[in-house]
Amino acid sequence: MLQFREFLKSGHAPTLWSSFLYFGFSCAIWVINGAMAPFIREAFQLTPTQMGMMLSIPIFAGALMRFPLGILAQYIGRKNATLVEMAGIFLAMGFGYMFVHTYNDLLAMGILLGVAGASFGVALSLGSGSFPPRYKGLAMGIVGAGNVGTAVAALLAPALAQKFGWQAVYGFAAVSVAIPALVMAVYAKEPPDLAAHSSFREHIACLFEKDGWAFSLIYAVTFGGFIGLTAFLPSYFYDQFSVSKVQAGQLTMMAAFLGAALRIFGGWLSDHWGGVNTLTGVLAITAVSMVLCGLAENSLPITMLLFLVCFAALGAGNGALFQLVPLRWPLTTAVAGSMIGEIGALGGGLIPNGMGISRQYTGTYLWGFVGIAVCALAMLLLLRVMQIRWTRTWAERGGRARTSS
Fold it and tell me: Cβ contacts of residue 101 below 8 Å, gap of 6+?
């Protein structure tokens, strides 16, 4: 407890908690269609591939919007960028409440939901910007635990949709955006950790470095796996095990909540044990658990247990990777984080599509799970190759912060 108080005093705690709330709300909005997927499928009579497309578009759109928001944040400030984005979320929810009447409207709504998905890099950089290097992993882990918003959406959206209709949920979301916006405006403060005179080329330097792409691909498995599976699971539980729409959301909430909570642990563990060491275990556990999930598709209890293990690993992996980012790019963390988050989220957009294709053309989701496992093993190999140079240049052995930084 004393160590945690020391951590809070080392930076600006109100900005940390404001960023957590902002990111949590954004995550909830980002996956809201996934949380309501059983209701939407019933309303539009969607095929598995149509469902996959509907669930993937918000993830793809959010990924593509992350880097531009990170660039904007470098020029108008991260706090101001969050307020601009939340205004966009309000307008998007208004469109969903009033104008979504066909499948094409639903796909357009998916693009607008991407506005919420753009929050990642800016939220983490804003929340952790005032903390010293030795606490960056924990600070980013706390803000990143805003992923718990996906669990809140999975829990509340189906219940609200059942009672008021699924389009009314957009209206509730539009009203609730006032809460994180007000907290951000009143309590957050712009951190001082920017290179004041950096050029545009210097801001985007991570785009031209192997490390940036290595981080992005690994994050495509950890965060991509987390967000892609979170969007997909309500439909999976509903179709595969014939549970109710609300129960499907509750089961998804359990897995998503664990994954979000373990992000903090992943950041803390990486500060002490090293981000590279933590990611090694994460990728191995993910590969094994995904294959077993596919093989256990006839048993709900076993499947649920395996999903809990997988989401715990993915959540810890998200915290672990973003313990490394500020060590590698200490003055342009917002832009580097946005780029890595962008590529990572694009990986998540492939999961609902892959699962829908697997089910429609093979009659089983197994090969979708196997595909995720293969990607995890490929990233494990990439990590082991890249870490040799990382620990010689900017990180201590295992991926810990250098004591001289």
Answer: none
